[in-house]
């Protein structure tokens, strides 16, 4: 099972979660999920979302090196600043992995995975209020 999570970087709240079978590309999951976000919302993704710039003007993903070439200093600096912003998102995902539903192999009914993950996301969001 694979889960795509939309997180607000300011409040660290989970806004949306979409689940699918394990062997699905990240960008394909994004297209199938049809997550409703404003056009002006900044999207910070990893390299699995290549091609999203054609769909979203405010999408930012790391720059990859071309075959046989090295990244320029500006590209490395850009990737470093992007990863500095994305680390807060990765911390939220790490906190979700404490519940072990996405850290380990899910051995229960697949039908209920999405429901259980959304309940865990709700518990996480509730804990942020305290």
Describe the fold and architecture.
The chain has three helices and four strands. It has 130 residues and is an alpha+beta fold. The chain has one domain. The strands form two sheets. A two-stranded antiparallel sheet has the order 1-2. The radius of gyration is 16 Å and the shape is globular. The model has no long low-confidence stretch (mean pLDDT 87).
Q: What's the layout of helices and strands?
A:
Elements: E1 2-7, E2 14-20, H1 26-33, E3 43-44, E4 59-60, H2 73-97, H3 113-129
Parallel strand pairs: 3-4
Antiparallel strand pairs: 1-2
Termini separation: 31 Å
User: What order do the helices and strands follow?
Assistant: EEHEEHH
Largest sheet: 2 strands, antiparallel
Give the tally of β-strands. Answer: 4
The poorly predicted ranges are none
- The number of domains is 1
> What's the alpha carbon Rg, rounded to whole Å?
16 Å
Beta-strand portion reads 5-15%
Percentage of residues in helical conformation? 25-40%
Average pLDDT, all residues: 87
Q: What would you call the structural class?
A: alpha+beta
Number of helices: 3
Q: Which geometry do the CA atoms define?
A: globular
Order of strands side by side in the largest beta sheet?
A: 1-2
